[in-house]
Amino acid sequence: MKFKLFVVVFFVASSLSFSAQAQQIKIGLAPEINLPTGNASSISGVGFGGAVKAEIGIADKYAITANGGYNLFLTKRKLGTKLANIEAVPIKLGFKHYPSQDFYIEGQAGAAFHVGGASKTSFVWSPGFGTYIKTGSANSKLEFGLRYEAWTNTSYGATTTLKTTSFSFIGLKLGYVFGM
Predict the structure, then answer these.
(1) How many CB atoms lie within 10 A of CB 28?
(2) For the whole model, what pTM was predicted?
(3) H helices within the chain, ranges in order?
(4) CA atoms of 12 and 87, how far apart (whole Å)
(5) Where do the domains of the chain lie, and which CATH numbers do they carry?
(6) Per-residue pLDDT tens digits for 73-92
């Protein structure tokens, strides 16, 4: 009888401990520098932005993320004419894995809503990784992250063929993350 009670108490205590760790919530604020790649580098040399990311732990090494931000890409001159800057508000959901306590790998997908002009909404996908650097506070850390991000548009051309274009970049961020 005592053994059964011990087993029940052990499993209840374990599940409460697991739930407390899994439900950890983090909020991050980060400025970004974005370096266009591929065809995007012929349009823009550099981009700037910022993001707010919420992270909800679902297990010890896994979390779900929600990310919103703003990106501005300064465009180059083409044939003596300055192209309009590219502005977008990307909204992404993702999944994060922690192979170690302060290192993560993540993937995100969502939509980039372009600001101004006749721009369309783009599909966004973004794999990345990062690390945390401890600060003096127990609940806050600095975050350094690196990601590849692509905004993909699909449209029909004049001859009704499907055309896909992509604007991609490498994003570097150094932000502040605090736990709740």
Answers:
(1) 23
(2) 0.79
(3) 2-22
(4) 51
(5) 22-179 (2.40.160.20)
(6) 998 887 778 888 899 999 99
